[in-house]
Amino acid sequence: MVNEIYEETKQSMEKSLEALKKDYSTLRTGKVHTSILDNITVDYYGTPTALNQVATVLAPDGTTINITPWEKNLVGAIEKAIQEANIGVNPNNNGESVQLFFPPMTQDQRKESVKGAKSMTDNAKVAIRNVRKHSNDKVKKLLKDKEITEDESKKAQDEIQKITDGYVVKSDDMFKAKDAEIMKI
Prior knowledge:
Helix content: 55-70%
Strand order of the largest sheet: 3-4-6-5
Shape: elongated
CATH architecture of the largest domain: Orthogonal Bundle
Number of domains: 2
Oligomer: single chain
Structural class: alpha+beta
Number of strands: 6
């Protein structure tokens, strides 16, 4: 019973770290990634559709993203969607594709990106602590229902705290790595 709670706790905390990785992918680092466009949707025949579902999105080098729609009539809609997304760069439309040329990041932009990463990390830690609280509540319920003893409850809560501490350290490590990646010129 208690072991199931440990497994659920680990799985939920792992999901928090996965969400953090996904959040990090939307941040701009020194090298441009196509994932910066992941949250952009295009009006595709009246349906908001993810950009990567209507076009080929490639980053041929560290400062350029090339977007080639599968249907040429979408070039204007893609250009408009990127302008509305306000990702810090103006799209260039050549009639067949849209290019995004990102200037090298300034020190201030890098610091802003690090702040964003720190905020995302803090949110992940809050999620991890919420999982801990939920797991501890389950243990307390088992104690209340007399399915485990007082000692087993204390031991289980200590183990849940150890698991939590491990995941908080993992999220801090992820932040340090992201910080280094952003600040690297």
